Every structure is written in structure tokens, then in C-alpha cells.
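Lab manual, section 2.4: Encoding a predicted structure.

Procedure: take the sequence of the chain (273 residues), apply the prediction step described in section 2.3, and record the output as C-alpha cells. A sample record is shown.
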Amino acid sequence: MSNKLILLVIATLALCETTYAAKPQYIRATQSDSVQVLFVGNSYTQRNNLPRLFQSLAESIGVKMAPSRALKGGQTLKGHLQNNKLKTMLAGGGFNYVVLQEASYRPSYPTRYVVDNVYPYAHSLDSLAKTGSPGVKVIYYMTWGHKNGLVHHKTDYPLDDTYEMMQNRLKTSYLEMTHENNSWCAPVGIAWQRVRNERPDIDLYVADQHHPSVAGSYLAANVILTTIIQKSYESEFFHTLPEETARYLQKVAQETVLDNLELIGIGTQQDNP
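Recorded output:
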């Protein structure tokens, strides 16, 4: 195989892997009596159209959600903070919840790096959300460790070399952001770890070993929804998953949130939509 052909194959594979995140989305949902939720993130939120999946799940149990989007593949919280489209959306207000998702690798880096390069931008976005929408709850979307530890954007830091170590770093960083800003955390990464341990037959990853499969996004949608409504439910919306798999993921998501209300910043407060 010629060098040119090899390069073409590599480029094609890379394009296939990132196409779903190619088009940034800055879409403000129509103001209505629905609960207004703004998703701020990157391809982890774009993949499988998590905002729409979340909305369909909520509708299936009689809760009307209107998801807005500020999504761009590969984007960091720092990058989002520099985007005038997002600033305009936040300043316009009217949101009940703002869900913040950092690039998957950055919160797993060394503590000093996270303190300098993640926490300040989380705080600034948190403040902008609360200034534009008084009474809004900011929710930090805790992502998950990559399947075999950090490979993409790898450094020489040893504490994210395995899935377990990377997950521990992400958990700590997201909970720190949550508590420093008096906000909430959607503990997707914690639920993800339980599924990996209990049901390895359910593959939560796609082939790149870090983005979510449909099952992974479905789990995330259930965790975020439970974080907002703070009660158990049974949904007949299974998306494209087998019923048994979907019901199991619902159960894990709900138990992860409801058994850890104090840990994730909610405590005993019940602020249902």
C-alpha cells in the first residue's frame, strides 16, 4: 500500500470518528412552560443527540423539558467562555438548569493543572449562568474514564493511566467544581463505573473507547433527568435498546443519584420541576 493511500485511509477513519461533532450547535429553545435546560459541552453531549434523548425520556414520564444547546466538538470550558454566542444565551436568561460538561481528559490531569485550567472557567460560566438566570441550578455533568485509561491527549501523569484511576480523578474534580460553586453534579461517571462492574456485557463505549455508545448516552440522560427531578420513575422510552437493558440503566442511574444526594450537592432539598 502506498504512503498516499495509507494517509487517505487514516484521514477517512478520523473523519468518520469525528463527523458527528463537526457542526457546532448554538440553539436556544423556544420559551414555553417547559423546563428550560441549557446543555453546554462538546462531542460527549452531541453524540447520539443527548439533549433530544433527555427530552424524550422526560416526556415519557410526563415532564416537559425544552433543551437548548451550546455544543462544539472538542470544546473546553475555557473555549466556551470565550464564545460570544454562549455569552449571549446566558445573558438572555430564562434557564432553569444549565448543564456544564468539560473536555473528557482535562479534569483527569494533575491537580495543579485542574486548579489553574479548569476550575476558574467552570466558576466563570457558573457565575454567568446565575447572573443571567437568577435561581438557576448549574449541573456539572461528570463524565467517565476512558475504557483503558487516558490515551487521547495523554501526558506523563500516572494517575490516569487506567480506567479506574482516570475515573477517580474525574470524580474528584467534578465534585470539587460542584461544591466550590454551590451547584449540583450529575454523577454519570459513578453510574458508568457501576455498569462496567456489574454488566460488562453492556458496552457503554463506541469503537474509539471513550465516546458513548447509545447505551452510554441513555445512561447519561437518565442520570441528568434524575438529578433534576430527584425521584424514581419507570419509563417506557427505551430508545433503540432492549427493554431489559434500558430498565437496568434506568435503575442504576436513579439509584446512583438518589443514594448520593448530599455528595452531589443536593442534600435533602427537593426542587422538582
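Check your result against the sample. The radius of gyration is 18 Å.
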